[in-house]
Amino acid sequence: MRREDIAVHLRQYLVPVEGRPHLLAMTAPPTPRRLPPRHSGSRELLISANAALARLDQAMRQWSSPDLVTRTLARREAVQSSQIEGTRTDLDELLVYEATLGLDGLPPDVVVTERYVQALQDGLEAVREGGRSAINLGLVNHLHAVLMQDMHDDFPKGRYRQAQAVIGPLGGRAEDARFVPSPPAGIGNAMQELEGQMLRYQPAEDEQFELNILAQIAIAHAQFETIHPYKDGNGRIGRLLMPLILAAEGYPPVYLSGALLRSKDAYYDALNQVQVKGNWAPWMDMVSKAVVESANDAIAIAEDMQQLVADWSEQVSGYRADAVARRLPALLVGHPVVTAAQVASLLGVSNRSALTGIYALEKEGILATGNERKWGRTYYAQAVLNRLNQLPLPPQQRPR
Fold first, then answer.
1. Fewer Cβ within 10 Å of end Cβ, the chain: N or C?
2. Mean pLDDT estimate for the chain
3. Which CATH superfamily, name and number, covers 3-299?
4. What is the pLDDT of residues 337-379, one digit of tens each?
5. Please, are residues 236 and 85 in contact by the beta-carbon 8 Å criterion?
């Protein structure tokens, strides 16, 4: 990162790195409270994204079991956000890990991804209880500690880094890095400013313009990545902030990591445009497109899951109303990989009754026995997994 690569109006935030006279770092500029019109992205894309959010909110009100659908979508988000950072875990492996309580000896990446699930759940519980005011530095540090809990004892879990970070050095030279964030001494003040200006955002009485919710999540994520407060885990925590802010404001917690993963290079480039050029347009457009794709995908998945449950209900209609075979299919939307013990716990029945129901659903082709080498003593609803692993259709191919 060289001085001449930085936009003129941002050069005032460049500082030398102690002990490295040829290396410049950028203390985070103030968190924007309003984006200049020429840097705010496409108005048409923003309108489309707002409409997609409204459609998802309306659709969720019609879902018979929204918590089950959002449970699996949250796990898919954990997998995809972790994959952006290079983990190799897939959704099937994560669900097996959760169903078996981690007893199957799956790869370490699965544990990393499951910690993301824990952090996301903690964050959602916090904002459901406390609203926007719950998104404070204490919560952010807690989420980081949960995410990084398996790191070695000396790793700063839930604490800011104490060493200079360098992002994306090219050719091994730090001076050629894509971005060099603030030295450690500047992190605390920058994070407090981010908290006051955006994480716990409230429009001031004298503000003429109130930021749209999409601008809020875009600014919060980009500013967090610019500060880069932690030694590791910054991308995942930054992406967690977006659904948490949405949920805190009463919107569905739209999960954007899948869309960002499919455009990973453009995602990094758009953030870099914010960081070194002060140009927010590419990032705002990317967030708008990701919201449209993710909201449409969530609606399509929920509709397909509802149809699956309806088909299964008809298929098992010959069983007694209180039989496991009648009661379990609807739960498979949220628990596509199960064990007998898990079914017994979910339905409040004995292990023997759970197995009887599982065997009945195997006979109906709704459940299948897991591969002992990969799945252990598990049973899975392949139709649910297939749908969750399906890529979104491009808008022009989506049924109307």
1. C
2. 91
3. Fido-like domain (1.10.3290.10)
4. 999 999 999 999 999 999 999 999 999 999 999 865 554 589 9
5. yes
Q: Which residue has the tokens 């599982």?
A: 358
Distance CA 173, CA 196 (A): 36
- Rounded Cα distance between 322 and 97, Å, is 29
The CATH architecture one would assign to domain 316-397 is Orthogonal Bundle (1.10)
Instruction: Provide the residue ranges of all domains of the chain, joining segments of one domain with +.
Output: 3-299, 316-397
pLDDT for residue 383 is more than 60: yes
CA distance 112 to 89: 9
What residues pair up with 212 in beta bridges, in sequence order? none
Give the 3-state secondary structure of residue 59. Answer: helix
Distances from the Cα of 304 to the Cα of 74, 111, 298, 309, angstroms: 17, 29, 10, 9
Asked if 130 and 123 touch (Cβ cutoff 8 Å), the reply is no
CA-CA distance, 274 to 285, in Å (whole number)?
12
pLDDT at 100: 85
CA–CA dist 69, 49 (Å, integer): 21
| AA identity, residue 258 | G
- The b-or-e profile of 80-106 (16+ CB within 10 A means b, else e) is bbbbbbebebbbbbbbbbbbbeeebeb
Amino acid making up residue 80: Q
